[in-house]
Amino acid sequence: MPRQFTKISLHEMDERVQHLAEKVYASALKEEDTKNTLSMFTVPEDCPIGLHQAKERELRKEIEEEKSEKSVKRSVNSNVVQDVEPIKWAMSVISPLLTPSSPTGPLPINIPEFQRVTISGDYCAGITVEDYEQAAKTLLTALFIREKYSRLAYHRFPRTTAKFLRSANNEIWSEEEEVLPDMCPAPREGEDPYSMEDLPQNLNYSLKMKDGIIYVYDNEDTLKQDQPRSLPYPDLETFAIEMSHVLAMIADGPTKTYCHRRLNFLMSKFHLHEMLNEMAELKELKSVPHRDFYNVRKVDTHIHAAACMNQKHLLKFIKDTYKTEADRVVLEKGGKKFTLKQVFEDLKMDPYDLTVDSLDVHAGRQTFHRFDKFNSKYNPVGASELREIYIKSDNYINGEYFARLIKEVAHDLEESKYQHAEPRLSIYGRAPEEWDILLKCNLTYQFKIKLCNYFSKALDAFLQVTGFDSVDDESKHSDHIFTYKSPKPEEWTMEENPPYTYYLFHMYANIMVLNNLRKERGLNTFQFRPHCGEAGSITHLVSAFLTADNISHGLNLKKSPVLQYLYYLAQVPNLCVSLSTDDPLQFHYTKEALMEEYAIAAQLWKLSTCDVCEIARNSVLQSGLSHQEKKHFLGENYLQDGPEGNDIRRTNVAQIRMAYRHETLCNELKNNFFI
């Protein structure tokens, strides 16, 4: 695929698609009851379409079609007959993925025999043949759109789905065309993590922002001639049109019905798989030497640095600093400087008397669905002064206490060995100096090295981060409907904040340009991993489907069976589930917050050992760990699909489970794309 952003003009947009997209936007804008537009996955199976009369019409139409000879000829037969041998059935499902040189006989690696759930007879989607074909066509279009956006930004796109998309176009997928993020490996012991020796030469590019997107020029002359470097530069109109295709799908009745039933089928199929094969999976795991749940790698992919410590840890740190540094100046307020002792005197409290209860940083029942109250829990004892002193990088002591707290948490992780974390540091975007402040905090107190005089170079070294997030209260309502007519950033003069989708597009667009430029220079690339679907409109999840490598939360996927099914087919890390802690300060009690999450989930959902190990494996796959580290933690062939990509000696995930996942995804793709 050429590394250019293919643009679409408005006149190419289908009127029906535009109408359905506007319907979804209107329902979100007016905050209406959207159950008729966005049916819940949990509603009874017989009512996803909506109105009773519409359902009767569709049923009559389906009965007439079934009677017709034409419908019989065009009906889609199941790929499986019950008396077919299981291995032959598995090969029939994954055959579109085999290259011409691949074997067509037995499966390529040894998989213990297990019981497969198969379906026989004419395929029935619960909708007419025409509606089924329309649903399959729109699903295919949506996956092609996500693949385009993922590849251009160096985000991940699953091999299995990519191979089926190539087959749908009568093409053959090759490994050479795969695009993957390029992550920095962790520094080895004794290695300077911020060494600037290998940084490429500064070529003094010229930059210019147009319509909210940075354009890169070789020099001032090419800037004057408006000849930017050949990089993919997205445009708002194309994004709005392609997003409308997905919006139209989630409002289309037959597509909702089809996706809803496929999700119900998948859930029931997995329950049957568990019932039939749980003991066989456990037998596999028992035969693996040395490895168990405790010593497989787990990554906390969503944890905020400002809340990465538990409440007891923060309380102890406050008491320790007061005991040893009470006379240290730590705060400047209103032109006056305060020592730590004076701060507590003004608050009329003695740190010795503090408890975790009086610290009051734990999230209680009253904070749920209240972003304002949740944010206030970042203030120990309700005092913003203590938040500034202890968990901010921009303060009088240059974030020293904050950095020391993070180091202590990192030390605990090092001791546990098999747990990793990706802390998220906050940049508010109010001033460019925020990067320098954050950099100063990290370089000075995290690694005890002398500050470089040239912050721009030091910042390049600091940018070994794995990606960017976008965080705020998603439930905040915006009266602006995002369209191609939305004002450009330089034209946005309204007092209200732009909508969520507006932010996501512009963040994605600039990360895409930056990633392509950095890839040219041999530097690491970044993932876009926003908070999404925690609250607010379903349109947030639609925009993230196009722009995000993976998302955090995604709770609102339950409102749309179409989106939920799309996220499954594209294996977006969210429906490729992992567990994370988010805010140990607010939610957890021990220094092993991630293990608390696994323990609670295992008890609540009755998860097996294979289940929790599969979740742990997912966390490594979707993390920002480098290719070399993932090979070490998951196996040399982790990029392969199914059992071939699983080294049970390292992941403790049964090959039966991996085969089931792979064959099930292939079967869904095969049904949808008539392959």
From TrEMBL:
Keywords, A to Z, come to: Hydrolase, Metal-binding, Nucleotide metabolism, Zinc
Cofactors (names): Zn(2+)
InterPro entries associated with the record = A/AMP_deam_AS, AMPD, Metal_Hydrolase
Taxonomic superkingdom: Eukaryota
List GO terms (cellular component aspect): cytosol
Swiss-Prot/TrEMBL GO biological process terms: AMP metabolic process; IMP salvage
Which Enzyme Commission number(s) are listed? Answer: 3.5.4.6
Q: Key word Zinc present in the record?
A: yes
Q: Which Pfam families match?
A: AMP_deaminase (PF19326)
Q: Could you tell me which pathway this protein works in? A: Purine metabolism; IMP biosynthesis via salvage pathway; IMP from AMP: step 1/1
Q: Extract one GO molecular function annotation from the record.
A: AMP deaminase activity
Question: Which family is this protein grouped under?
Answer: Belongs to the metallo-dependent hydrolases superfamily. Adenosine and AMP deaminases family.
Alphabetized PANTHER family for the sequence: AMP DEAMINASE (PTHR11359), AMP DEAMINASE 3 (PTHR11359:SF2)
| Designated name of the protein | AMP deaminase
